[in-house]
Amino acid sequence: MRLNIIVAAIVVLTTVTWLPATASEPTVDTRKLSESLGNLEERIDALEKKVQQPLMQPQANETPKGPKRTSLLPLIPYYDNGFFLETADEQFRLNITGVLQADARFFTGATSEPDARDTASPNSFDIRRARFDFRGWHYKNNVFRIQLEMADTPYLRNAYWIFQKWPAVRFQLGQFKIPTGGADFLTEEAQINFIEYSADTPISPHFDRGLMLWGTPCAGVVQYAVGAFTGTGPDIDVPTGDVDKSKDIAGRLLLVPFKNTDIDLLKGLHVAGGYQYGMESIRTSKGETSNRTESYQSQWFSWRQRNVRLDHRARWGAELHYLVGPFTASYEYNRIEWHDIQAFRDDGTLLFEKPDTYFVDVHQVWLSYFLTGEHKTMQDVFFAWRQPKPKKNFSLKDGTWGAWELLVRAAFRNGSGALFDTASLVLDGSRKAHSITGGINWTANPKVRVMFNVVYLKNDDGSYSGIISQKPNAVAGQNDIRYLDHELAFLLRCVLTI
Q1: I need a labelling partner for 440 at 20 to 30 A (CA). Which of 4, 49, 298, 376 fits?
Q2: Is this structure's pTM higher than 0.70?
Protein backbone atom coordinates (compact mmCIF):
# COMPACT_ATOMS: atom_id res chain seq x y z
CA MET A 1 0.00 0.00 0.00
CA ARG A 2 2.67 2.43 1.04
CA LEU A 3 4.80 1.67 -1.99
CA ASN A 4 1.92 2.27 -4.40
CA ILE A 5 1.11 5.66 -2.88
CA ILE A 6 4.73 6.80 -2.99
CA VAL A 7 5.20 5.67 -6.58
CA ALA A 8 2.04 7.48 -7.67
CA ALA A 9 3.15 10.65 -5.92
CA ILE A 10 6.58 10.52 -7.56
CA VAL A 11 5.00 10.05 -10.98
CA VAL A 12 2.76 13.05 -10.42
CA LEU A 13 5.64 15.20 -9.18
CA THR A 14 7.87 14.22 -12.09
CA THR A 15 5.16 14.81 -14.68
CA VAL A 16 4.24 18.21 -13.33
CA THR A 17 7.86 19.29 -13.06
CA TRP A 18 9.02 18.28 -16.51
CA LEU A 19 5.96 18.94 -18.72
CA PRO A 20 6.35 22.24 -20.47
CA ALA A 21 3.96 24.90 -19.19
CA THR A 22 1.52 26.50 -21.71
CA ALA A 23 0.08 29.98 -21.64
CA SER A 24 -3.43 28.67 -20.88
CA GLU A 25 -2.36 26.40 -17.96
CA PRO A 26 -1.69 27.67 -14.44
CA THR A 27 1.89 27.34 -13.09
CA VAL A 28 2.35 24.41 -10.65
CA ASP A 29 4.09 25.17 -7.32
CA THR A 30 6.52 22.20 -7.10
CA ARG A 31 7.79 23.21 -3.67
CA LYS A 32 4.32 22.89 -2.11
CA LEU A 33 3.82 19.59 -3.90
CA SER A 34 7.08 18.22 -2.44
CA GLU A 35 6.06 19.28 1.07
CA SER A 36 2.71 17.54 0.60
CA LEU A 37 4.53 14.36 -0.45
CA GLY A 38 6.71 14.51 2.68
CA ASN A 39 3.69 14.94 4.94
CA LEU A 40 2.02 12.01 3.20
CA GLU A 41 5.04 9.74 3.91
CA GLU A 42 5.06 10.69 7.60
CA ARG A 43 1.35 9.83 7.92
CA ILE A 44 1.96 6.48 6.19
CA ASP A 45 4.83 5.68 8.62
CA ALA A 46 2.66 6.48 11.63
CA LEU A 47 -0.16 4.33 10.29
CA GLU A 48 2.14 1.35 9.67
CA LYS A 49 3.54 1.52 13.22
CA LYS A 50 0.03 1.44 14.70
CA VAL A 51 -0.91 -1.54 12.55
CA GLN A 52 2.29 -3.55 13.26
CA GLN A 53 2.62 -2.77 16.99
CA PRO A 54 0.33 -5.57 18.22
CA LEU A 55 2.08 -8.07 15.97
CA MET A 56 5.50 -7.18 17.38
CA GLN A 57 4.56 -7.80 21.04
CA PRO A 58 6.09 -11.02 22.41
CA GLN A 59 3.80 -13.87 23.27
CA ALA A 60 3.46 -15.00 26.86
CA ASN A 61 5.79 -17.99 26.36
CA GLU A 62 8.46 -16.05 24.38
CA THR A 63 11.55 -14.19 25.58
CA PRO A 64 12.07 -10.74 24.03
CA LYS A 65 15.11 -10.63 21.75
CA GLY A 66 18.09 -8.39 22.57
CA PRO A 67 19.40 -5.57 20.43
CA LYS A 68 20.37 -6.45 16.88
CA ARG A 69 24.09 -7.32 16.58
CA THR A 70 26.00 -5.45 13.92
CA SER A 71 29.61 -5.53 12.74
CA LEU A 72 31.69 -3.11 14.80
CA LEU A 73 34.11 -2.33 11.99
CA PRO A 74 34.69 -3.52 8.44
CA LEU A 75 37.49 -6.09 8.03
CA ILE A 76 40.00 -5.00 5.39
CA PRO A 77 42.08 -7.66 3.55
CA TYR A 78 45.24 -6.46 1.84
CA TYR A 79 48.74 -7.53 0.79
CA ASP A 80 51.82 -5.60 1.92
CA ASN A 81 54.79 -7.95 1.65
CA GLY A 82 52.44 -10.48 3.29
CA PHE A 83 48.72 -11.22 3.67
CA PHE A 84 46.88 -9.09 6.24
CA LEU A 85 43.41 -8.83 7.74
CA GLU A 86 42.85 -5.57 9.61
CA THR A 87 40.02 -3.54 11.08
CA ALA A 88 39.43 0.00 9.80
CA ASP A 89 40.63 1.58 13.04
CA GLU A 90 43.87 -0.53 12.93
CA GLN A 91 43.22 -1.90 16.43
CA PHE A 92 43.13 -5.53 15.28
CA ARG A 93 45.50 -7.09 12.73
CA LEU A 94 46.40 -10.60 11.56
CA ASN A 95 49.40 -11.33 9.32
CA ILE A 96 49.45 -14.77 7.67
CA THR A 97 52.82 -15.85 6.32
CA GLY A 98 55.11 -18.85 6.05
CA VAL A 99 58.45 -20.13 4.82
CA LEU A 100 59.54 -23.14 2.80
CA GLN A 101 63.18 -24.21 2.56
CA ALA A 102 64.08 -26.91 0.04
CA ASP A 103 67.64 -28.28 0.30
CA ALA A 104 69.98 -30.29 -1.89
CA ARG A 105 73.17 -31.74 -0.35
CA PHE A 106 76.09 -33.33 -2.16
CA PHE A 107 79.09 -34.97 -0.47
CA THR A 108 82.37 -35.86 -2.13
CA GLY A 109 83.04 -39.57 -1.85
CA ALA A 110 79.50 -40.32 -0.65
CA THR A 111 79.25 -44.10 -0.61
CA SER A 112 77.70 -47.01 1.24
CA GLU A 113 80.61 -49.42 0.77
CA PRO A 114 81.51 -50.99 4.17
CA ASP A 115 85.26 -50.52 3.74
CA ALA A 116 85.09 -46.99 2.31
CA ARG A 117 87.06 -44.33 4.13
CA ASP A 118 84.90 -41.46 2.86
CA THR A 119 81.72 -39.98 4.30
CA ALA A 120 78.64 -42.10 4.86
CA SER A 121 76.41 -39.04 4.39
CA PRO A 122 74.33 -39.64 1.24
CA ASN A 123 73.61 -37.13 -1.48
CA SER A 124 70.07 -36.03 -0.78
CA PHE A 125 67.16 -33.69 -1.33
CA ASP A 126 65.18 -32.52 1.67
CA ILE A 127 62.42 -30.20 2.87
CA ARG A 128 64.50 -28.58 5.59
CA ARG A 129 61.74 -26.31 6.93
CA ALA A 130 58.06 -25.77 6.14
CA ARG A 131 56.43 -23.35 8.54
CA PHE A 132 53.14 -21.50 8.85
CA ASP A 133 53.29 -18.23 10.76
CA PHE A 134 50.43 -16.21 12.23
CA ARG A 135 51.30 -12.83 13.74
CA GLY A 136 49.23 -9.85 14.68
CA TRP A 137 48.03 -7.52 17.37
CA HIS A 138 44.90 -6.52 19.26
CA TYR A 139 44.59 -2.98 20.57
CA LYS A 140 48.10 -2.47 19.09
CA ASN A 141 49.83 -2.95 22.46
CA ASN A 142 49.16 -6.71 22.52
CA VAL A 143 51.23 -8.63 19.96
CA PHE A 144 50.91 -12.38 19.39
CA ARG A 145 52.58 -15.04 17.27
CA ILE A 146 51.85 -18.71 16.55
CA GLN A 147 54.26 -20.64 14.31
CA LEU A 148 53.86 -24.26 13.25
CA GLU A 149 56.65 -26.46 11.89
CA MET A 150 55.23 -28.95 9.36
CA ALA A 151 58.44 -30.59 8.07
CA ASP A 152 59.44 -33.96 9.56
CA THR A 153 57.59 -34.15 12.90
CA PRO A 154 55.05 -31.26 13.13
CA TYR A 155 55.28 -29.24 16.32
CA LEU A 156 54.48 -25.85 17.81
CA ARG A 157 57.54 -23.62 17.46
CA ASN A 158 56.91 -19.97 18.37
CA ALA A 159 53.82 -19.36 20.49
CA TYR A 160 53.96 -16.14 22.50
CA TRP A 161 52.23 -12.91 23.48
CA ILE A 162 53.92 -9.51 23.96
CA PHE A 163 52.65 -6.45 25.78
CA GLN A 164 54.52 -3.53 24.22
CA LYS A 165 53.13 -0.20 25.32
CA TRP A 166 56.60 1.22 26.01
CA PRO A 167 59.62 0.57 23.72
CA ALA A 168 61.97 0.49 26.72
CA VAL A 169 60.03 -2.24 28.58
CA ARG A 170 58.13 -5.05 26.86
CA PHE A 171 56.75 -8.18 28.49
CA GLN A 172 56.77 -11.50 26.61
CA LEU A 173 55.18 -14.79 27.66
CA GLY A 174 55.07 -18.17 25.91
CA GLN A 175 57.44 -20.38 23.90
CA PHE A 176 60.32 -18.88 21.93
CA LYS A 177 64.09 -19.02 21.52
CA ILE A 178 66.09 -18.34 24.67
CA PRO A 179 67.87 -14.97 24.11
CA THR A 180 71.42 -16.36 24.24
CA GLY A 181 73.64 -18.22 21.79
CA GLY A 182 74.58 -15.33 19.53
CA ALA A 183 72.90 -13.25 16.84
CA ASP A 184 73.57 -15.85 14.16
CA PHE A 185 71.59 -18.57 15.95
CA LEU A 186 68.83 -16.16 17.03
CA THR A 187 68.18 -15.06 13.43
CA GLU A 188 64.81 -16.01 11.93
CA GLU A 189 64.88 -18.96 9.53
CA ALA A 190 64.00 -16.81 6.50
CA GLN A 191 66.79 -14.32 7.35
CA ILE A 192 69.79 -16.59 7.97
CA ASN A 193 73.19 -15.73 6.49
CA PHE A 194 74.52 -19.26 5.90
CA ILE A 195 72.60 -22.45 5.21
CA GLU A 196 73.54 -24.00 8.58
CA TYR A 197 74.75 -22.61 11.92
CA SER A 198 78.29 -22.98 13.26
CA ALA A 199 77.22 -22.73 16.91
CA ASP A 200 74.25 -25.10 16.73
CA THR A 201 72.61 -26.79 19.71
CA PRO A 202 73.74 -27.52 22.38
CA ILE A 203 76.38 -24.77 22.16
CA SER A 204 73.46 -22.44 21.52
CA PRO A 205 70.11 -23.07 23.27
CA HIS A 206 66.86 -24.10 21.62
CA PHE A 207 63.26 -23.07 22.21
CA ASP A 208 61.83 -23.07 25.70
CA ARG A 209 58.77 -21.88 27.62
CA GLY A 210 58.98 -18.93 29.94
CA LEU A 211 58.59 -15.20 30.39
CA MET A 212 60.88 -12.35 29.47
CA LEU A 213 61.37 -8.60 29.73
CA TRP A 214 63.06 -6.88 26.81
CA GLY A 215 63.30 -3.45 25.27
CA THR A 216 65.28 -0.78 23.46
CA PRO A 217 65.87 2.17 25.84
CA CYS A 218 68.03 5.18 25.02
CA ALA A 219 66.66 5.38 21.46
CA GLY A 220 67.97 1.91 20.68
CA VAL A 221 71.52 2.46 21.88
CA VAL A 222 70.86 -0.16 24.58
CA GLN A 223 68.97 -3.34 23.71
CA TYR A 224 68.34 -5.98 26.36
CA ALA A 225 66.41 -9.17 27.10
CA VAL A 226 66.19 -11.09 30.40
CA GLY A 227 63.88 -14.00 31.27
CA ALA A 228 63.13 -17.17 33.22
CA PHE A 229 62.48 -20.51 31.46
CA THR A 230 61.56 -24.09 32.32
CA GLY A 231 64.92 -25.50 31.18
CA THR A 232 63.27 -28.53 29.55
CA GLY A 233 62.83 -27.25 25.99
CA PRO A 234 59.72 -26.81 23.80
CA ASP A 235 56.33 -28.31 24.45
CA ILE A 236 56.91 -31.27 22.12
CA ASP A 237 59.80 -32.50 24.30
CA VAL A 238 58.15 -32.26 27.73
CA PRO A 239 54.38 -31.66 27.26
CA THR A 240 53.76 -31.34 31.01
CA GLY A 241 55.76 -28.11 31.07
CA ASP A 242 58.48 -28.86 33.61
CA VAL A 243 60.02 -31.64 35.69
CA ASP A 244 61.30 -29.80 38.78
CA LYS A 245 61.14 -26.53 40.70
CA SER A 246 64.34 -25.04 39.27
CA LYS A 247 64.25 -22.63 36.33
CA ASP A 248 66.78 -21.35 33.81
CA ILE A 249 67.74 -17.68 33.93
CA ALA A 250 68.92 -16.14 30.66
CA GLY A 251 69.74 -12.67 29.36
CA ARG A 252 71.25 -10.80 26.44
CA LEU A 253 72.63 -7.27 26.20
CA LEU A 254 73.47 -5.49 22.96
CA LEU A 255 75.00 -2.01 22.71
CA VAL A 256 75.04 0.21 19.62
CA PRO A 257 77.06 3.12 21.07
CA PHE A 258 77.22 5.22 17.88
CA LYS A 259 73.71 4.46 16.63
CA ASN A 260 72.48 8.08 16.82
CA THR A 261 75.66 9.84 15.73
CA ASP A 262 76.59 11.24 12.33
CA ILE A 263 79.75 9.13 12.09
CA ASP A 264 78.84 6.72 9.28
CA LEU A 265 81.89 4.51 9.82
CA LEU A 266 80.91 3.86 13.47
CA LYS A 267 77.10 3.72 13.35
CA GLY A 268 77.10 0.01 12.56
CA LEU A 269 79.27 -1.10 15.50
CA HIS A 270 77.42 -3.61 17.74
CA VAL A 271 78.76 -5.21 20.93
CA ALA A 272 76.75 -7.98 22.62
CA GLY A 273 76.88 -10.73 25.19
CA GLY A 274 74.57 -13.36 26.67
CA TYR A 275 74.37 -15.73 29.63
CA GLN A 276 72.15 -18.68 30.65
CA TYR A 277 72.23 -20.68 33.89
CA GLY A 278 70.04 -23.51 35.10
CA MET A 279 69.84 -26.61 37.27
CA GLU A 280 69.26 -29.68 35.09
CA SER A 281 67.46 -32.77 36.39
CA ILE A 282 67.21 -34.55 33.03
CA ARG A 283 69.02 -34.62 29.71
CA THR A 284 67.24 -32.39 27.21
CA SER A 285 66.69 -33.35 23.57
CA LYS A 286 68.62 -30.28 22.34
CA GLY A 287 71.17 -30.24 25.16
CA GLU A 288 72.79 -33.58 25.90
CA THR A 289 72.32 -35.44 22.61
CA SER A 290 74.50 -34.26 19.69
CA ASN A 291 76.03 -31.27 17.91
CA ARG A 292 75.48 -31.03 14.15
CA THR A 293 78.18 -29.87 11.75
CA GLU A 294 77.71 -27.13 9.15
CA SER A 295 76.95 -29.82 6.54
CA TYR A 296 73.91 -30.88 8.66
CA GLN A 297 74.07 -34.64 8.09
CA SER A 298 77.20 -35.26 10.16
CA GLN A 299 77.98 -34.47 13.81
CA TRP A 300 80.88 -32.87 15.64
CA PHE A 301 80.07 -34.95 18.72
CA SER A 302 77.33 -36.97 20.38
CA TRP A 303 76.61 -38.07 23.96
CA ARG A 304 77.36 -41.68 24.71
CA GLN A 305 74.92 -42.01 27.59
CA ARG A 306 71.14 -41.80 27.37
CA ASN A 307 70.36 -41.18 31.04
CA VAL A 308 72.23 -38.09 32.24
CA ARG A 309 71.75 -35.68 35.12
CA LEU A 310 73.69 -32.46 35.73
CA ASP A 311 74.18 -30.30 38.76
CA HIS A 312 73.74 -27.34 36.43
CA ARG A 313 74.37 -26.18 32.87
CA ALA A 314 75.57 -22.76 31.74
CA ARG A 315 75.87 -21.05 28.37
CA TRP A 316 77.56 -17.76 27.69
CA GLY A 317 79.12 -15.82 24.86
CA ALA A 318 80.30 -12.50 23.44
CA GLU A 319 79.79 -10.83 20.05
CA LEU A 320 81.21 -8.03 17.94
CA HIS A 321 79.45 -6.98 14.73
CA TYR A 322 80.31 -4.23 12.29
CA LEU A 323 78.03 -3.05 9.49
CA VAL A 324 79.01 -0.33 7.04
CA GLY A 325 77.20 0.01 3.73
CA PRO A 326 77.14 -3.32 1.83
CA PHE A 327 79.93 -4.78 4.03
CA THR A 328 79.39 -6.79 7.23
CA ALA A 329 81.91 -8.37 9.60
CA SER A 330 80.89 -10.54 12.56
CA TYR A 331 82.67 -12.37 15.38
CA GLU A 332 80.97 -14.63 17.95
CA TYR A 333 82.23 -16.70 20.83
CA ASN A 334 79.83 -19.21 22.42
CA ARG A 335 80.43 -21.76 25.16
CA ILE A 336 78.43 -24.44 26.95
CA GLU A 337 79.51 -25.75 30.37
CA TRP A 338 78.29 -28.91 32.13
CA HIS A 339 78.85 -29.13 35.88
CA ASP A 340 79.04 -32.39 37.86
CA ILE A 341 77.89 -34.97 35.28
CA GLN A 342 76.12 -38.13 36.43
CA ALA A 343 75.19 -41.01 34.11
CA PHE A 344 72.77 -43.82 34.98
CA ARG A 345 72.00 -47.27 33.61
CA ASP A 346 68.53 -48.07 32.30
CA ASP A 347 67.61 -49.61 35.68
CA GLY A 348 68.42 -46.30 37.43
CA THR A 349 71.68 -47.33 39.08
CA LEU A 350 74.62 -44.93 38.87
CA LEU A 351 77.04 -45.68 36.03
CA PHE A 352 79.61 -42.96 36.73
CA GLU A 353 79.96 -39.50 38.22
CA LYS A 354 82.32 -36.79 37.00
CA PRO A 355 82.51 -33.83 39.38
CA ASP A 356 84.02 -30.62 37.99
CA THR A 357 83.22 -28.30 35.08
CA TYR A 358 83.51 -29.37 31.43
CA PHE A 359 83.00 -27.31 28.29
CA VAL A 360 82.75 -27.11 24.52
CA ASP A 361 83.17 -23.74 22.81
CA VAL A 362 83.03 -22.27 19.31
CA HIS A 363 84.74 -19.21 17.82
CA GLN A 364 83.36 -18.03 14.49
CA VAL A 365 84.08 -15.07 12.24
CA TRP A 366 82.38 -14.27 8.95
CA LEU A 367 82.41 -11.55 6.29
CA SER A 368 79.72 -10.51 3.83
CA TYR A 369 79.57 -8.12 0.89
CA PHE A 370 76.63 -7.23 -1.37
CA LEU A 371 77.82 -6.80 -4.94
CA THR A 372 74.58 -4.96 -5.74
CA GLY A 373 74.89 -2.45 -2.88
CA GLU A 374 72.24 -3.62 -0.37
CA HIS A 375 72.79 -3.24 3.41
CA LYS A 376 72.15 -5.80 6.14
CA THR A 377 70.53 -4.69 9.40
CA MET A 378 70.30 -6.07 12.94
CA GLN A 379 66.89 -5.90 14.58
CA ASP A 380 63.84 -8.00 15.60
CA VAL A 381 62.81 -9.27 19.04
CA PHE A 382 66.26 -10.67 19.87
CA PHE A 383 68.25 -8.11 17.85
CA ALA A 384 69.28 -10.64 15.23
CA TRP A 385 70.16 -10.39 11.53
CA ARG A 386 67.75 -9.14 8.87
CA GLN A 387 68.34 -9.47 5.13
CA PRO A 388 67.71 -6.46 2.87
CA LYS A 389 65.23 -6.29 0.02
CA PRO A 390 66.86 -6.05 -3.41
CA LYS A 391 67.27 -2.55 -4.74
CA LYS A 392 65.86 -3.93 -7.97
CA ASN A 393 63.99 -7.23 -8.16
CA PHE A 394 65.02 -9.82 -10.70
CA SER A 395 63.35 -9.18 -14.07
CA LEU A 396 64.45 -10.38 -17.50
CA LYS A 397 62.18 -7.79 -19.07
CA ASP A 398 63.82 -4.89 -17.22
CA GLY A 399 67.31 -6.39 -17.21
CA THR A 400 67.61 -6.32 -13.39
CA TRP A 401 69.15 -9.14 -11.36
CA GLY A 402 68.08 -8.84 -7.72
CA ALA A 403 70.58 -8.80 -4.83
CA TRP A 404 73.86 -10.75 -4.91
CA GLU A 405 75.91 -11.42 -1.77
CA LEU A 406 79.31 -13.09 -1.25
CA LEU A 407 80.14 -14.63 2.16
CA VAL A 408 82.95 -16.51 3.87
CA ARG A 409 83.02 -18.00 7.39
CA ALA A 410 85.67 -19.71 9.52
CA ALA A 411 84.89 -21.49 12.79
CA PHE A 412 87.04 -23.22 15.39
CA ARG A 413 85.75 -25.48 18.20
CA ASN A 414 87.41 -26.91 21.26
CA GLY A 415 86.27 -29.11 24.15
CA SER A 416 87.49 -30.46 27.47
CA GLY A 417 89.77 -33.43 26.93
CA ALA A 418 88.15 -35.32 29.80
CA LEU A 419 84.83 -35.34 27.92
CA PHE A 420 86.31 -37.13 24.87
CA ASP A 421 88.67 -39.53 26.64
CA THR A 422 87.68 -43.05 25.64
CA ALA A 423 87.63 -43.98 29.32
CA SER A 424 85.26 -41.15 30.24
CA LEU A 425 82.18 -42.52 28.43
CA VAL A 426 80.78 -38.97 28.00
CA LEU A 427 81.22 -37.59 24.46
CA ASP A 428 82.15 -39.21 21.17
CA GLY A 429 83.49 -37.16 18.23
CA SER A 430 85.86 -34.27 17.60
CA ARG A 431 87.45 -32.50 20.58
CA LYS A 432 89.21 -29.96 18.36
CA ALA A 433 88.06 -29.13 14.84
CA HIS A 434 87.56 -26.30 12.39
CA SER A 435 85.36 -25.48 9.42
CA ILE A 436 85.48 -23.12 6.45
CA THR A 437 82.33 -22.11 4.53
CA GLY A 438 82.06 -20.07 1.35
CA GLY A 439 78.72 -18.84 0.12
CA ILE A 440 76.78 -17.02 -2.58
CA ASN A 441 73.28 -15.74 -1.84
CA TRP A 442 70.92 -14.52 -4.55
CA THR A 443 67.75 -12.70 -3.53
CA ALA A 444 65.53 -12.51 -6.61
CA ASN A 445 62.82 -10.56 -4.76
CA PRO A 446 61.68 -10.24 -1.13
CA LYS A 447 59.98 -13.65 -1.36
CA VAL A 448 62.54 -15.78 -3.22
CA ARG A 449 66.11 -16.44 -2.11
CA VAL A 450 68.66 -19.00 -3.34
CA MET A 451 71.69 -19.92 -1.20
CA PHE A 452 74.76 -21.93 -2.17
CA ASN A 453 77.46 -23.01 0.34
CA VAL A 454 80.67 -25.01 0.05
CA VAL A 455 81.58 -26.46 3.46
CA TYR A 456 84.91 -27.98 4.49
CA LEU A 457 85.15 -29.72 7.89
CA LYS A 458 88.42 -30.84 9.51
CA ASN A 459 89.08 -32.83 12.67
CA ASP A 460 92.19 -31.28 14.30
CA ASP A 461 92.86 -33.87 17.00
CA GLY A 462 93.71 -37.31 15.67
CA SER A 463 93.67 -38.95 19.08
CA TYR A 464 89.88 -38.75 19.17
CA SER A 465 87.24 -40.37 17.03
CA GLY A 466 86.70 -37.50 14.60
CA ILE A 467 83.69 -36.22 12.67
CA ILE A 468 80.73 -38.61 12.95
CA SER A 469 79.12 -39.45 9.61
CA GLN A 470 76.21 -41.86 9.49
CA LYS A 471 73.17 -42.95 7.49
CA PRO A 472 70.45 -45.60 7.98
CA ASN A 473 71.34 -49.06 6.69
CA ALA A 474 69.15 -51.97 5.68
CA VAL A 475 68.63 -53.06 9.28
CA ALA A 476 65.84 -51.03 10.88
CA GLY A 477 67.01 -48.76 13.66
CA GLN A 478 70.71 -49.06 12.87
CA ASN A 479 73.13 -46.70 11.10
CA ASP A 480 76.29 -46.99 9.07
CA ILE A 481 78.82 -44.86 10.98
CA ARG A 482 82.16 -43.44 9.81
CA TYR A 483 84.65 -41.41 11.84
CA LEU A 484 86.09 -38.87 9.42
CA ASP A 485 89.25 -36.82 9.43
CA HIS A 486 87.55 -34.32 7.07
CA GLU A 487 84.40 -33.84 5.00
CA LEU A 488 83.54 -31.66 1.98
CA ALA A 489 79.93 -30.81 1.18
CA PHE A 490 78.06 -28.69 -1.37
CA LEU A 491 74.76 -27.30 -0.08
CA LEU A 492 72.01 -25.62 -2.08
CA ARG A 493 68.85 -24.10 -0.63
CA CYS A 494 65.80 -22.33 -2.07
CA VAL A 495 63.95 -20.13 0.44
CA LEU A 496 60.34 -19.24 -0.43
CA THR A 497 58.22 -17.00 1.79
CA ILE A 498 54.64 -15.76 1.57
Answers
A1: 298
A2: yes
